[in-house]
Specification:
Helix content is 54%, strand content 16%. It is α+β, with helices and mostly antiparallel strands. It folds into two domains: 81 residues, 2-Layer Sandwich (Translation Initiation Factor IF3), CATH 3.30.110.60; 30 residues. A four-stranded mixed β-sheet has the order 1-2-4-3, with helices on both faces. Strand 3 and strand 4 form a beta hairpin.
Length: 139
């Protein structure tokens, strides 16, 4: 299982995902496992849906998929399993980009602090202009 911070980040990324693989009435066949492996190679982070008619319990399915080499179980909510497998060459969620984001978060990157008020001023100005235009149309 991945470390706590990585798991938290993966759960956040996985929230918006749709299930790519569904386990149906035939259960966890070799073809389904092959499909999960291929999807993990392509996407790194996937959701797997265990159907209601599946003869295998959702916990058994999660354990079986977690036993595959390099595959980590991130989360299981209901009948949906979130799986992660780090890409060997270009990881999306680990590696240089993730470490740089973590470092800027820890140090409190100064550029973010400077640009945030300027962006907020622009948004307020746009809203004020839109409100003025709306008032003038009513008259």
């Amino acid at each position: 299982m991945p470390a706590g911070e990585l798991r938290r980040a993966l759960r956040g990324h996985g929230h918006a995902l749709s299930p790519l693989v569904q386990i149906g009435k035939l259960g966890l066949t070799d073809a389904v496992i092959k499909q999960v492996t291929q999807a993990l190679d392509d996407h790194e982070l996937i959701k797997v849906k265990v159907g209601g008619e599946c003869p295998v319990d959702r916990h058994e399915a999660a354990d079986r998929l977690d036993r595959e080499p390099g595959v980590d179980l991130v989360q299981m909510v209901g009948r949906v399993i979130l799986l992660y497998k780090r890409h060997p060459r270009t990881p999306r969620y680990e590696g240089k980009r993730a470490q740089a984001a973590k470092a800027s978060k820890v140090t409190g990157d100064a550029t973010e602090k400077k640009t945030a008020p300027a962006a907020a001023k622009k948004v307020r100005a746009r809203r004020a202009g839109a409100a003025a235009a709306k008032r003038s149309r009513r008259r």
